[in-house]
Amino acid sequence: MPVPLNQAIRVGAYVVRQHLAGRKRYPLVLMLEPLFRCNLACAGCGKIDYPDPILNQRLSVEDCLAAADECGAPVVAIAGGEPLLHKEMPQIVEGLLARGKFIYLCTNALLLEKKLDQYKPHKNFAWDVHLDGDRDMHDHSVSQGGVYDRAVAAIKAAKARGFRVCVNTTLFDTAEPARVAAFMDETVKLGLDGVMISPGYAYERAPDQQHFLNRRKSKELFREIFRRGQGRGWKFNQSALFLDFLAGNQRYLCTPWGKPTRNVFGWQRPCYLLGEGYAKTFTELMETTDWDQYGTGNYEKCADCMVHSGYEATAVMDAVRNPLKHMRIALRGPRTEGAMAPDISLANQRPADYVFNRHVQERMAQLHAKPEPVDAAD
Ligand code: SF4
Asked: Per the record's keyword annotation, is Membrane included, yes or no (predicted)?
């Protein structure tokens, strides 16, 4: 089982408790973005297109721990930007572990070998290295040569020191199933603890807008990949039902509150991928966001989204409600033949609202009015 047993049990028990308490909406994974600054400029990234004063902002250790306390999700994914540029990242990780959180520290791994000494292996802590396929696929995806080799060297160094290491893989319409399958074999050889795989989300600020997958193509691609996976020992760090959804067999609605995002703007509405507004507190986010405005079928920007930020939580909640279905699919793997589940109609979706520039202007005005302390990257 790729998700560690203690994590699966704790998260399952947490979900059951939320159901018993009658909570309609609750978080599973806190997406913590302590900074937007990165040391790469990937073509498919929509997170780094901010003016320098915003890229220089950091969430403090206290901000990060307060966000975890406020939100209460059992799992924390630390993303960005590049989290290893944050000088206080070891303290943030320590504080989250002391709170019993399961942590995935997402990184492009360029600084990983240099920083490994600052961290200790822990059963609840995993490096989550960005790796979008084999050497050519990944270096093309991050728009820089040599990054794949450095990431793989860092993965080997981290594994040698006893860390859990997963990879996070985003696929675009250039992905070839046979090459992705060979890459998955490589992750087995590297002894990785799991792969989190998703189709890329078409961020409106991503420099390359040409190569994002639509839903139909995503499902066909994942069927082609999973078909090749029988008996090859691939480990996915995702629920079996989410993989079945990627293969077109589950008709899921988005659960954006399942992975709420806290970043330097505040609590982001509605999800990790879309910044349509910001709340000051987690409670405000949950209570004042008009959730029905978002998700595939409701909003044009969500039309092609099949990303774990929105749909993994739906799959986990489905697994808790329907354990036999989950067990059946976990045992046999995603179905790769036959009719797909009907997709959600886009007939009534509202048009896209382009708000990025307004948020940047508002934030810049705040920074000019009251300069915040800046923690420069090291
Ligand atoms: S479908 Fe859900 S996760 Fe995807 S962009 Fe829309 S709100 Fe976010």
From this structure: no
Would you place residue 377 in the very low, low, confident or very high pLDDT band (cuts 50, 70, 90)? Answer: very low
* CA nearest ligand 1 atom 1, residue: 295
CB 165 within 8 A of CB 158: yes
Here the CATH number for the domain that contains residue 229 is: 3.20.20.70
pLDDT tens digits, one per residue of 21-76:
999 999 999 999 999 999 898 877 777 788 999 999 999 999 999 999 999 999 99
With a cut of 60, say whether residue 374 has pLDDT above it: no
Q: Is residue 231 part of a domain?
A: yes
Mean pLDDT of the chain: 92
Residue 5 has pLDDT above 90, yes or no: no
- Write the DSSP assignment of 160-228 as a string of letters: HTT-EEEEEEEE-TT--HHHHHHHHHHHHHTT-SEEEEEEPP--TT-S--S----HHHHHHHHHHHHHT
- The percent of residues in the chain predicted with pLDDT above 70, rounded, is 96
In a domain, 83, yes or no: yes
Query: 106 CA to middle of ligand 1, Å?
Result: 20
Distance CA 45, CA 79 (A): 12
CA angle, residues 27, 29, 35, in degrees to nearest 5: 115
pLDDT at residue 112 above 80? yes
Residue bearing the CA closest to ligand 1, atom 7: 295
Domain annotation covers residue 377: no
pLDDT(378) > 50: no
Mutate to test the pocket of ligand 1, among 28, 253, 273, 285 (most ligand atoms within 8 A of CB): 273
Q: What is the CA radius of gyration of the chain?
A: 20
Q: Does a structural domain hold residue 376?
A: no
DSSP string, 70-87: HH--SEEEE-SS-GGGST
Number of domains the chain is built from: 1
SS3 content of the chain, % helix, strand, coil (to 5): 40, 15, 45
From the CA of 202, how far away is ligand 1's center (Å)? Answer: 11
Ligand 1 centre to CA of 36 (Å) is 20
CA dist 315 and 252 (Å) reads 8
